[in-house]
Amino acid sequence: MKQKKKSDVAVLLDYAGSHRGLTFLGLFLSAVSMLLSMAPYICIWLVARDLIAVAPDWTRAQDIAQYGWLSFAFAVAGIVLYFAGLMCTHLAAFRTASNIRKQGVAHVMNAPLGWFDANASGLIRGRLDAAAADTETLLAHNLADIVGTITLFIAMLVLMFVFDWRMGCACLLAAVISILTMFAMMGGKNAQIMAEYQAAQDRMTKAGTEYVRGIPVVKIFQQTVYSFKAFQQAIEEYSAKAEHYQADVCRTPQSINLSVTEGAFVFLVPAALFLAPGALATGSFAGFVTDFAFYAVFSAIISTALARIMFASSGIMLAGTALGRIRMVMEAPELKAPERPRAPQGSRVEFRDVSFTYDGAETPALSHVSFTVEPGQTVALVGPSGGGKTTAASLIPRFWDVSSGAVLVGGVDVRDYDMEFLRNSVAVVLQKNVLFSGTILDNLRWGNEEATEEQCMDACKKACAHDFVMNFPKGYETWIEQGGTNVSGGQKQRLCIARALLKNPKVLILDDSTSAVDTATDARIRKAFREEVPVVTKIIIAQRVSAIESADRILVLDDGKVVGFDTHEHLLENNDIYREIYQVQTQGGGDFDGPTPDAIPEGKEA
Ligand SMILES: Nc1ncnc2c1ncn2[C@@H]1O[C@H](COP(=O)(O)OP(=O)(O)OP(=O)(O)O)[C@@H](O)[C@H]1O
Ligand SMILES: [Mg+2]
Q1: DSSP symbols for 278-329
Q2: What is the chain's Cα-based Rg?
Q3: Is 0.85 surpassed by the pTM of this model?
Q4: What's the CATH code, domain 349-597?
Q5: From-to residues of CATH 1.20.1560.10 in the chain
Q6: Whose Cα sits closest to atom 16 in ligand 1?
Q7: What residue owns the CA closest to ligand 1's atom 2?
């Protein structure tokens, strides 16, 4: 990939887009501000020089006040430019982080659903969010610090040669030792430890999300966080890695580093003792004292500069790992869009010798499945759990792509459709329904943003949701909590069906979508479907015989293979698996959850 050859910073600047220039401006301002911040030290040297030159007749040192003002002006200018620079880099950093989040989310939307199984949503969110935040620090602070510090170092080296290179070298010694300890801390084997530490943090986020989601189950079984082994293990592992990194890897180099940088002037003393006799002998002792004063003050900059480098390089490392995580999201496989999308005709659904194997699975979930659903027909998919019903239904809206064979809607292979057109034509109510926080109307309008209140009510009437919605004090303005926790399972299912109907789909797929609805209401929903949406092709997955037997045809799937495709009566005569499902339910066992279908007036359909 092209991106891999680029440095991390270059990749980040690509994300900055039009705000790239702002980053460069910020860096430039930061460099200039660093140069200005050195001016006061030079002024101090000038003051020291003048004083020593006129000693002990101090009144002759007339320019001292001027130097004071000059140094004050430079300091103020330096601070102003530093803030202006930070403002530029911050603006660019925020935009970059927001671009990363936007592009990440947009990319993930095109990934096949299977990818989300392997990448828990908490992990994706964590990766994108934390990674974007980490890059924000790099762009807003670290890069400016790095550029500023490099400028400072170059200026320092120049000044060292201008005044007295020997004392300069003594000061530099502190910097060299500090840089060596930093390399020891971050390079080689320790970089690997740092990566493991980050990976442990990732695993802890993932397990934490899973734990929070599973709290109801944890409570039901009277368990505690300690019995949630995966989470506990992830926390322990993270704490071990963190301790190892901080205590074993960082302690010694960090201690040396801090002592050396904070006490940089200590290295000056032996240098001064060594140089003093020479200066005395040549009569340049006043100059020597001036230089010594300068370096003693100047050495204070070294610790500031090195602290900045430390901070900045850890920022670069963090951003490097952050970019790695962002890449994991950006490299999620995408469903291929057709070059020239084709226009479909009608709403016939056809499976042509379809086989499908989930990524990483050893056996196919579907093998050589062929069947056709004519426009307007209702076909029920039945069969034992794990038989492949949900999988077959998921291939129609292209949640996954077939491994071989083809799925056609309206005579056109779904892979040749414009994705948006396909998803608008095929409405799916999933086995795991989701409502979002917002009012009932907001939720319904996920199906069609422009739906009027009347259209929403109409859809709810068909899905038998209108009555219970009107029973809420606020009716359609009732607030739904995140995940739909404040409505019952059956109410949630009916709202999801209404939401799907609002799409005005050509094909409607209901995957176990009325399992929590009582049998009488279920029958009413099916009656409404038959009478009010006759042109829509309906594919219904249901465990309930009452829901199945009224279908035009029934497809029996067992172990991913079609073992029957016929009407209820014919299957009952000829198909052992179907007969068994039917008998178990009508004789009071299995999944049957209410009165027999004959007891419901409109349950029995033609
Ligand atoms: N995301 C997935 N990744 C890997 N394998 C999967 C995935 N989803 C389902 N499978 C496997 O594919 C097979 C068919 O599953 P599918 O969900 O289609 O069954 P189903 O007929 O809908 O069952 P149920 O009636 O229990 O909903 C099963 O063996 C299942 O283990
Ligand atoms: Mg299923």
Answers
A1: HHHHHT-HHHHHHHHHHHHHHHHHHHHHHHHHHHHHHHHHHHHHHHHHHHHH
A2: 36
A3: no
A4: 3.40.50.300
A5: 8-330
A6: 388
A7: 358
User: How many angstroms does the Cα of residue 21 sit away from the middle of ligand 2?
Assistant: 52
Token pair recorded at residue 106: 């947009």
SS3 of residue 15 by DSSP: helix
Q: Top-level CATH class of 8-330? A: mainly alpha
Q: How far apart are CA 73 and CA 84, in angstroms?
A: 16
* Closest CA relative to residue 39, chosen from 82, 86, 75: 75
Residue 375: asked if its preceding bond is cis (omega within 30°), the reply is no
The 10 Å Cβ neighbour count of residue 212 is 11
Ligand 1 pocket residues where CB is under 6 Å: 114, 117, 358, 361, 365, 383, 385-391, 431
Residue whose CA is at the smallest distance from ligand 1 atom 27:
385
pLDDT tens track for 58-111 = 777 778 888 889 999 999 999 999 999 999 999 999 998 888 888 888 888 777
Q: Pick the atom of ligand 1 nearest to 393's CA.
A: 18
Positive or negative torsion for Cα 569, 570, 571, 572: positive
Q: Which atom of ligand 1 is nearest to the CA of 360?
A: 4
* pLDDT tens string 191-225: 888 888 888 988 898 888 888 877 777 777 766 66
Residue 114 CA to ligand 2 center (angstroms) comes to 15
Minimal-distance CA residue to ligand 1 atom 25: 385
The CATH 3.40.50.300 portion of the chain extends over 349-597
